[in-house]
From TrEMBL:
The keyword NADP does not apply. GO terms for molecular function: semaphorin receptor activity. It comes from the Eukaryota. This is Plexin A3-like isoform X1.
């Protein structure tokens, strides 16, 4: 086993410090570690004398791995090696801990992140990024290399790209805008059926002609119904019964409009469904009639519960609404 080079790690034992030197380390060799013992938490720096330390770009880091934990501290270049600062101390009650020490440069990591457009899963995030990333609409992916990854696709270029572009920035992303009243919240009474409608910004004929689906994630279960695009900018989800089991008076369910089988429209404003139970929002007539009108709750005389009209004796019960007076 190679003992140490810049890219493999020596074992050092903090406390009764012993290190593994030499070995199959070829060019880069640690010739000494100072101090060679670290008494409890007194020493906070570690000097590594290294032969043939290559000129590395970026910040150097000392990385201590203790069990599953990784601790990264600053490394300072010195004439004959490096100094690790803020080295971890030994937890109280332990005589020693064994840490794996590696030295690395953050340059490579930084460079990788810079080009990692792939990490963006939505068009809005992708084309708003500080990095030169573009969104392929049909491929539903973010890329820095459109020639390679986005052939014959509709392209939305990122705001960080220079030069002319046909479609640039998040305004060209296919998105859910909100309800037709402009709200980001869709209210549904639990145990009732509702056909959800939302305004969308579809952008392309290509998407407009695809199949749509609405998805609701209620208490971690996903429910899907078919949907139609009408008037160019309204998605009509098929009716669905909304229920939930928890004891809460209301819960939020996330909402998505899917096109082309698996591609969600962006939902940058988090348009979501709030499912509520009138009886749990108000347990007496006075409170029930004082609830905000948007819930459409009223006092059901037959059940003596706060209910929506349709649930009060299936719409046949005596149902008091906001402008009525509670019976004494
Ligand atoms: C390090 O600590 C372990 C237990 O925590 C102990 O078994 C071992 O003997 C110690 N090693 C030294 C060199 O003190
Ligand atoms: C539902 O979401 C809205 C908006 O994000 C938030 O204000 C509200 O507290 C949430 N309700 C619940 C029960 O989590």
């Amino acid at each position: 086993m190679p003992c140490f080079n810049m890219w493999t790690a020596p074992m050092i034992v903090l406390g009764t410090l012993s290190a593994c030197f030499g070995g199959d380390s070829r060019d880069v060799v640690i010739t000494s570690i100072t101090p060679n013992k670290i008494q409890s938490s007194t020493a906070r720096t570690l000097d590594l004398a290294i032969e043939n330390l290559p000129e590395l770009p970026g910040q150097l880091l000392c990385v201590f791995t203790i069990g599953e934990t990784t601790l990264t501290t600053e490394a300072i270049k010195q004439t004959n090696g490096i100094k690790c600062t803020n080295i971890p101390s030994i937890p109280v009650g332990l005589h020693n801990i064994t840490a794996k020490l590696s030295v690395r440069s953050d340059f490579f990591t930084t460079k990788f992140n810079f080009f990692d457009c792939n990490s963006y899963s939505s068009c809005t995030q992708c084309v708003s990024s500080d990095f030169p990333c573009d969104w392929c609409m049909n491929g539903h992916r973010c890329t820095h290399d459109t020639a390679e990854n986005c052939r014959n696709d509709i392209l939305i270029t990122g705001v960080s790209r220079v030069g002319p572009s046909f479609r640039s920035g998040p305004a060209f992303c296919p998105t859910i805008i909100g309800t037709n009243t402009g709200s980001r919240e869709i209210l549904v009474a639990s145990n009732s059926k509702k056909a959800v409608n939302v305004k969308v910004h579809i952008v392309s004929q290509f998407i407009a002609q695809s199949r749509f689906e609405c998805q609701f994630n209620i208490e971690s279960r996903v429910f899907s119904v078919n949907a139609q695009l009408r008037d160019d900018d309204v998605i009509h989800c098929d009716p669905m019964k909304f229920t939930y089991t928890s004891q809460l008076s209301n819960i939020n369910a996330s909402f998505a409009v899917i096109w082309g089988g698996s591609k969600p429209l962006d939902n940058p404003d988090n348009v979501h469904v709030n499912i509520y139970k009138c009886p749990d929002l108000a347990n007496n007539c006075g409170l029930c009639l004082a609830l905000p009108e948007k819930y459409r709750c009223g006092w059901c005389e037959s059940s003596k519960r706060c209910e929506i009209f349709q649930q009060c004796d299936n719409g046949l019960g005596v149902w008091l609404k906001r402008d009525h007076t509670c019976p004494i």
